[in-house]
From TrEMBL:
This is Tryptophanase. The keyword Lyase applies. It comes from the Bacteria. Belongs to the beta-eliminating lyase family. The keyword Transmembrane does not apply. PANTHER family: BETA-ELIMINATING LYASE-LIKE PROTEIN-RELATED, TRYPTOPHANASE. Its cofactor is pyridoxal 5'-phosphate. Keywords: Lyase, Pyridoxal phosphate. Pfam families: Beta_elim_lyase.
Length: 457
């Protein structure tokens, strides 16, 4: 059998810069030990996020050139409307400038004070938009998701007992929706099975609750359904995607992930009344309903991206690269969330750095070490991200402290993955020497991880 190779070649290249450890030591100090404060030139391989960092295809760039910049009724809007109808199955949609804007608009209609919003490990902006409205997010993810060694094939699944416990102890008026995140970013890019989507839908309809999918990585989720759920082995990705969304009343989308564009988002829904209500907020916050904060050219590129992400070899290439990095780490005994997820490798920092106390931000400490080692920028998904409890203002210590290495789409080669893997291995080999972390100098009242300033503990 021949080895695996990508089914694309590279037409345009962007130089990236190597640096010395001495330079990086100085730069990270100037950045107050917050990787978000680094300049991109100070980073060699940037795995901070897979959001808006992917490479567009020649067909997407061609679509950019034919974008229609009319304020109202542009052809680009209609191209996108057709793609959303044909691929995702929603009759109505509103463009927004990115995913969190979609949340802001939709939740302005649906969420009020004291509401309860169950889901599978809500993403931080999703939770932020819920808590900002003085409502609360209840995590109903299955317990297996928190055991990084468990090989459960669908660690993004919701636990139906936990979900029903929420439904049966609150009046339906207090539960505006359940949010199912596909794939579940927070628990490691882990998929939700079709069976679970179907069951969540059935249970929610029984209690009269709306089902909303946070769909940023919906295509990656469909790939795992095709690979891991017997019934779908012979289905196409487009068929799987269509069935997935048949179980949702509405969706929010960060197009910066599985739209394979650099900016954009949308809300889609089946109910015209919800469209009308959300339109009011969309016009106030985002823009008129046929552009919603997006340029016409970007809507055009997104329409093409939605088709590409669900066609041909794209997903095989994508998931292969993430697994390539993950499997190297597994081979060397480095603790990661297993099985490897769709968009990122999540390193289990508590198991990796056993000597750093949790009060000193274990995953952040590992992220800084990796930057110093090789100029690789990952991101903390741990105590800094979990933030303080909005009521008690105490630190929330999540079950998992993770260093996320998110792989941008079609951007790096497997040689880059090799550098990341070896850098982590070098740190792993000297992990006993790392016995203290960092403490906070300054932090913001909400979403602190973006701007927090740290110093050596
Ligand atoms: N939902 C999920 C599951 C996400 O991962 C993100 C963003 C959003 C919503 C918000 O979308 O960034 O377009 O406003 N995740 C990025 C990340 C930032 O790095 O995981 P956005």
């Amino acid at each position: 059998e021949l080895p695996f190779a990508e089914s694309y070649k590279i037409k345009m290249v962007e130089p990236i810069y190597k640096s010395t450890r001495e330079q990086r030591k100085e730069w990270i100090k100037q950045a107050n030990y917050n990787l978000f404060n680094l300049r991109s030139e100070q980073v060699f391989i940037d795995l901070l996020t897979d959001s808006g960092t992917g490479a567009m295809s020649q067909n997407q760039w061609a679509a950019i050139m034919t974008g229609d910049e009319s304020y109202a009724g542009s052809s680009s809007y209609y191209h996108l409307k057709d793609a959303i109808k044909n691929i995702l199955g929603f009759d109505y949609f509103l463009p927004t400038h990115q995913g969190r804007a979609a949340e802001n608009v939709l939740f302005s209609v649906l969420v009020k004070e004291d509401d309860v919003v169950p889901g599978n490990s809500h993403f931080d902006t999703t939770k932020g938009h819920i808590e900002y409205r003085k409502a609360s997010a209840v995590d109903c993810t299955i317990d297996e998701a928190f055991d990084t060694e468990s090989l459960h094939p669908f660690k993004g699944n919701l636990d139906l007992n936990k979900l029903e416990a929420v439904y049966s102890t609150h009046p339906a008026e207090q539960i505006p929706m359940v949010i199912v995140t596909l794939t579940c970013n927070t628990s490691g890019g882990q998929p939700v099975s079709m069976q679970n989507l179907r069951d969540v839908h059935t249970l929610s309809k029984k209690y009269g609750i709306k089902v909303v999918f946070d769909s940023a990585r919906f295509a990656e989720n469909a790939w795992f359904i095709q690979q891991r759920e017997d019934e779908y082995r012979n289905s196409t990705i487009k068929e799987i995607v269509a069935e997935m969304f048949s179980y949702a009343d509405a969706m929010t989308m960060s197009s910066k992930k599985d739209g394979i564009v650099n900016i954009g988002g949308f809300i889609a829904m089946k109910d015209e009344e919800l469209l009308k209500q959300a339109s009011v907020f969309n016009i106030m916050f985002e823009g008129f309903n046929t552009y919603g904060g997006m340029a016409g050219r970007d809507m055009n590129a997104l329409a093409v991206g939605l088709d590409e992400v669900t066609t041909g070899y794209y997903l095989e290439n994508r998931i292969q690269q993430v697994a390539y990095l993950g499997n190297k780490l597994i081979e060397w005994g480095i603790p990661v969330q297993k099985p490897i997820g769709g968009h990122a490798v999540f390193v289990d920092a508590k198991k990796f750095l056993g000597h750093v106390p949790k009060e000193e931000y274990i995953a952040q400490t590992l992220a800084i070490e990796l930057y110093l080692e090789a100029g690789v920028r990952g991101v903390e998904v741990g105590t800094l991200l979990a933030d303080r409890d909005p009521k008690t203002r105490e630190n929330r210590y999540p079950k998992l402290e993770m260093l996320r290495l998110a792989i941008p789409r079609r951007t790096y080669t497997n040689n880059h993955m090799d550098v990341v893997a070896v850098a982590l291995k070098n740190i792993f080999d000297r992990r006993e020497e790392i016995d203290h972390g960092y403490r906070i100098k300054k932090e913001a009242p909400i979403m602190r991880h973006f701007s927090v300033e740290l110093e050596h503990a």
